[in-house]
Amino acid sequence: MERFVRCTALAPALALVATTSALAASPDMSGAAEAMWERRMARLIRNAGHWCDEVRDITLDKRQSTQIRKTVLVTCSDGRHFAQYELIVDRDNQLKSINPIPR
């Protein structure tokens, strides 16, 4: 799997979960913009009742993603705690589920 934090391939999913219309068209985000998206992703996961203090990685799972649904893997870590989540987004960019990935 490839890291996609700075890639516009995640723009629809991140736009949905961050409740904004879209990411900038440029694949090169500034450090501040990247940090903003990571904070919003962590807030979304916490609002769903899961633990996520700080997002360390956001990855599009190409093996499980299809035209109908995208699977986004999110890794949260604060140095002491670690958790991974699978976010399922449908073709209309609606978040369908947030599932913890067992260790």
Main sheet strand line-up: 1-2-3-4
Please write the string of helix (H) and strand (E) elements: HHEEEE
Q: Count up the helices.
A: 2
Unreliable runs: 1-13, 16-26
Proportion of residues in β-strands: 25-35%
Number of strands: 4
Helix content: 10-25%
Could you give the distance between the termini? 18 Å
The biggest beta sheet is recorded as: 4 strands, antiparallel
**Rg to the nearest angstrom?**
13 Å
**Helix- and strand-based class?**
alpha+beta
The structural domain count equals 1
**Any idea what the shape is?**
globular
User: What is the mean pLDDT?
Assistant: 77
Write the layout of secondary structure elements.
Elements (H helix, E strand, L loop, with lengths): L10 H7 L13 H17 L7 E6 L8 E9 L4 E9 L4 E7 L2
Antiparallel strand pairs: 1-2, 2-3, 3-4
